[in-house]
Amino acid sequence: MENTHRTHRASGSTAASARRRSPFAAAVRNVGIALDTAARVVLLGRDGVRL
Q1: Do 41 and 49 form a contact (C-beta atoms < 8 A)?
Q2: Could you point out which of 17, 29, 45, 49 has its C-alpha 20 to 30 Å from the C-alpha of 35?
Q3: pLDDT for 1-51, tens place per residue?
Q4: Helix ranges (DSSP H) in 1-51
């Protein structure tokens, strides 16, 4: 009997283990997130950052 069962995944989603970034790419992304957060705090005050 052929297995025709398919699991539904959201468009664009990937398994966490299949999505590996290089250490350099991960560091660049993290620095970008930190700079973005710092800019929001400076420009918008604490109200610009949702916790």
Answers
A1: yes
A2: 17
A3: 556 666 666 666 665 555 677 999 999 999 999 999 888 888 888 776 666
A4: 23-44
> Nearest-5° angle of CA 40, CA 42, CA 46?
70
Kindly report whether the global pTM for this prediction surpasses the value 0.70.
no
What's the rounded Cα separation, in Å, for the pair 37 and 49?
Answer: 7
Q: Which residues contact 40 (CB under 8 A, 6 or more apart)?
A: 48, 49
CB 23 within 8 A of CB 30: no
- Alpha-carbon distance of 8 to 27, in angstroms, equals 32
